[in-house]
Amino acid sequence: MDNKSDEILAQIEPIEFINDLLDYITDPNLGGVTPKDLKEAPPLVKGVIFVRAFDLDTSNVSVVAWLTENYDHYPTLANFFDKIGAKSASRYLRSAYALFPNGRVIRDQDKRYTFCNEHEEQFVKIDRKFKGASEEAILKLRNYVVSKRKTFEAQVEKFWQVRKRHFARWNRDLEKLRRRS
After folding, report:
1. DSSP labels for 141-171?
2. Does domain 3-180 sit in CATH 1.20.1420?
3. Can you state the angle between helices 14-26 and 43-60, rounded to 10 degrees?
4. Prediction pTM value
5. What is the crossing angle of helices 133-147 and 43-60, to 10°?
């Protein structure tokens, strides 16, 4: 990694850290991260992306936003939180999961959305109980990335290659469509 990554990892403010780290790993010059990119994302890179998504969902709305919008993309986020030592965030998710019948999140997204709406008050209590958990997770993530820096660097490089390959393919396909029109 370069001086830019050193600056990012030295960042104390959780939101600035995660935003800068996300920009760094995803290279915004390549457009948005696609589902295809996510499918091939190395584990630590994928974790960073979804820690940010979790933070956005829970800070701006509720854990319900995570459950209804992003859960399907990364159902094992609680395990990632355990891995990086973000115990409060892990308990936050697991408490939300426990509200579902038999403690299992409903697979059908529409039914899950309905369930969440019907149990909104219970989810709000969980949100209140774990206020600040996403910021704690971001700080734990920073510590984890610092401790696994070499692994992280290799995974970021790999993800950049994935994104460049997909971006080039997307541009070729777009050019073919333009020629046909």
Report:
1. HHHHHHHTHHHHHHHHHHHHHHHHHHHHHHH
2. yes
3. 140
4. 0.89
5. 160
Tokens representing 154 are 């290799």
CA atoms within 13 A on the CB side of 163: 22
- The pLDDT tens digits of the residues spanning 158-167 come to 999 999 998 8
Residues 86/141, Cβ–Cβ less than 8 Å: yes
Percentage of residues of the chain with pLDDT beyond 90: 77
Which tens digit of pLDDT belongs to each residue from 112-134? 999 999 999 999 999 999 999 99
Question: Residue 125: enclosing H or E segment and its boundaries?
Answer: helix 120-129
For helices 133-147 and 149-180, the axis angle rounded to 10 degrees is 100
